[in-house]
Design a protein that fits this description.
Number of helices: 22
Distance between the termini: 104 Å
Shape: flat
Radius of gyration: 40 Å
Strand content: 15-25%
């Protein structure tokens, strides 16, 4: 054999006798065939500390890594960390670690034993004369005072997980607002699960435009956020009554519920809230086709003594719901009804005669065909403490109904009418004459029934309480009406006459002369027939009180700016957009040492040029906002220099 393999040595395979002295060891032979045996003596198995990588004929040993541990082991490690800061640091390593840390519930955190062990360790070191140490719990008391908001592309599950981990050790998340979602990696139940497990202190949750969030996501919130007080759902089509049922059962402190555009939420969800949330204070339900009278009746009747704010819009409810409001709304202070096509005159009449709205202070009605003279009069009688009343797009309300309401609503302080085209001059002045002594503000917006008539008023006492008058875009309102207003309202302080092409100097001057208390805010934007004469007289009579003046589009020039600079020392907000002012007028303002403008708007003043830059620089010592848009005679280079000079002023160009 040695010759065959060129082996130099003894021909004996095992010289010295038998290989194994003990015959029992013959079992250690491994037979490979009929004529060949191989001997394997007993020995320990070699320990392999890490996996081997076989590459061709070489064998490489991979370095050990914590990433090789399964998720279960990492989870156990993370939940035993002594403080929230340590867990936050671990969450920054990778998305995998972030996901694991964010899925740890508060009751699963086992840091007590670890912290105690560290305390004992440091105490023993202190006894031995070591450096005095103190182990402090790094977790801040979870009070839920932090607020976070995610919008659009930033709204993802990863960011929600980061919020869950990051806020846990910094006071706790109290408010979360999600507006929209990432189109590719949108918010799902996984993200809300992270919030549920890491933010038990959450009190306010607002979800808008989230088609990817369904019942499973709200199930997670209900499971972990038992302190929830406000829930706002807007355009979440996948959320159904099951979600509201889960939230209602798990969150008894819920006191504010807002639902908009959720097509799968109906009576069953509202009835669950009615049963389980006795402290409900505010409800807002809009554009939910499945919500009917049964759900609202349950909600309103169960929270009769706690519900203070009710807002209903674009719902398929009938007179029954308004009757329930009128009877059970004992604590309601704010009520808003919008676009309720199935509610008739009977509903408003029954609501007013229910005598349950004794505490109602603010009432707004928009686009409800049931608002008629009879129904409005009943509302006035049934709401003795009503202070603010707003009517928009009520096509069937006439002068008689408005005057009757004014007679019965003795506590009314503010009356606003918008697009009520059957209201004429008689209704407007009749409400002024018949309102109680508490009326402070009245507003007419786009009421096309107003016509300028020469009215002969009987001898009546003026409305001494009225402080604010606003008439906007009523084309029939003119000089004759202003003269009457001047006689009826001698204590005006805020006057807004916007978009009234029919008033001139002849009508506005008597109003200026009759105001005894001194005008504070005046808005004359769009009154194209008012001239410098009005501004000069107003500056002379009311310059000592005037703080805001809007002359956008009026026929004024430099003479008005000169009068303002001399007399209006308290003026802080001036708008002379689209007026015929020049560089001379701006220079007159700058020369005044007493004026302290903060807001100056000169948009569309084509006659103001670069020559005004030094004057604007001087005015800029007090300016916070400057509008130079569409000033074509001003160059961009001059504006750039002005921006550098007025570093604290916001400049629009």
């Amino acid at each position: 054999m040695s010759k065959l393999f060129a082996f130099s040595g003894s021909d004996e395979f095992c010289p010295g006798g038998s290989i194994y002295p003990n015959p029992k060891e013959s079992s250690l032979f491994l037979s490979l065939g009929r004529h060949v045996d191989v001997y394997f003596p007993p020995r320990k198995r070699s320990r392999i500390s890490a996996p081997f990588v076989f590459s061709g004929e070489t064998i490489e040993q991979k370095k050990p890594s914590i990433e090789d541990l399964p998720d279960e082991c990492l989870f156990e490690i993370f939940r035993r960390l002594p403080g929230g800061q340590e867990r936050s640091s671990c969450a920054c390593v990778s998305k995998r670690w972030l996901t694991l840390v964010s899925n740890i519930r508060r009751d699963e955190i086992n840091g007590t034993k670890t912290t105690q062990a560290l305390n004992l360790k440091y105490e023993s070191a202190d006894k031995k004369g070591g450096v005095v140490s103190e182990v402090e719990d790094q977790d801040v008391v979870d009070e839920g005072y932090l607020s976070r908001s995610l919008e659009g592309k930033k709204a993802t599950d990863v960011r929600l997980a980061a919020i869950s981990v990051g806020t846990a050790s910094r006071g706790g998340l109290g408010k979360l607002f999600i507006r929209g979602s990432n189109s590719r990696r949108g918010v799902t139940a996984a993200g809300l699960r992270a919030i549920s497990r890491g933010c038990p202190s959450l009190r306010v949750l607002s979800l808008w435009d989230l088609s990817s969030v369904g019942d499973e996501g709200l199930f997670e919130i209900a499971d972990g956020c038992h302190q929830l007080e406000k829930l706002d759902l807007c355009h979440c089509p996948a959320i159904t009554d099951k979600s509201l049922l889960a939230v209602a059962k798990s969150c008894p402190n819920l006191n504010d519920l807002a639902i908009e555009g959720c097509a799968n939420i109906g009576n069953e969800g509202l009835q669950a809230v009615a049963r389980c949330c006795p402290n409900l204070k505010s409800i807002s339900i809009r554009d939910c086709p499945l919500v009917r009278d049964q759900g609202l009746a349950s909600l309103l009747s169960s929270a009769s003594y706690s519900l203070t704010k009710v807002k209903l819009q674009a719902l398929n409810i009938t007179d029954v719901s308004l009757a329930v409001i009128g009877h059970y709304g004992k604590a309601v202070t704010d009520l808003s009804l919008t676009s309720l096509p199935n509610v008739s005159e009977k509903g408003f009449w029954v609501m007013g005669n229910g005598h349950g709205l004794q505490k109602l202070k603010s009432f707004a009605v928009t686009s409800c065909p049931g608002v008629t003279d009879l129904g409005l009069e009943a509302v006035g009688r049934g709401c003795p403490n009503l202070k603010q009343f707003c009517l928009r797009k009520c096509a069937f309300l006439s002068d008689n109904g408005l005057v009757s309401f004014a007679k019965t609503a003795s506590s009314l302080e503010s009356l606003q009418l918008e697009e009520c085209h059957r209201i004429t001059q008689f209704g407007f002045f009749g409400s002024l004459l018949n309102c109680g002594a508490k009326l402070k503000a009245i507003s007419l917006v786009n009421c096309l029934g107003i016509k300028d008539l020469n009215l002969a008023l009987p001898p009546v006492s003026p409305c001494e309480s009225l402080r604010s008058l606003s008439i906007c875009n009523c084309p029939g309102f003119g000089d004759a009406s202003l003269v009457v207003l001047g006689k009826l309202c001698p204590q005006l302080q805020h006057v807004e006459l916007s978009g009234l092409h029919g008033i001139t100097d002849a009508g506005f001057l008597p109003l200026l002369e009759s105001c005894k208390a001194g005008l504070v805010k005046v808005n004359l934007s769009g009154c194209v027939n008012l001239t410098d004469k009005v501004v000069c007289i107003m500056s002379d009579l009311h310059g000592w009180t005037l703080e805001m003046l809007n002359l956008d589009g009026c026929k004024i020039g430099d003479a008005s700016l000169v009068a303002i600079a001399e007399n209006c020392h308290l003026l802080s907000d001036l708008d002379v957009s689209k007026c015929a002012i020049t560089d001379s007028g701006i220079a007159a303002l700058a020369r005044s040492n007493l004026i302290n403008l903060q807001i100056l708007s000169m948009s569309g003043c084509s006659r103001v040029s670069d020559k005004s830059m030094p004057s604007l620089g001087k005015l800029g010592e007090t300016l916070l906002g400057l509008n130079l848009q569409q000033c074509k005679a001003i160059s961009s280079g001059a504006v750039d220099l002005l921006v550098e000079q007025l570093w604290r002023c916001d400049i629009l160009f």
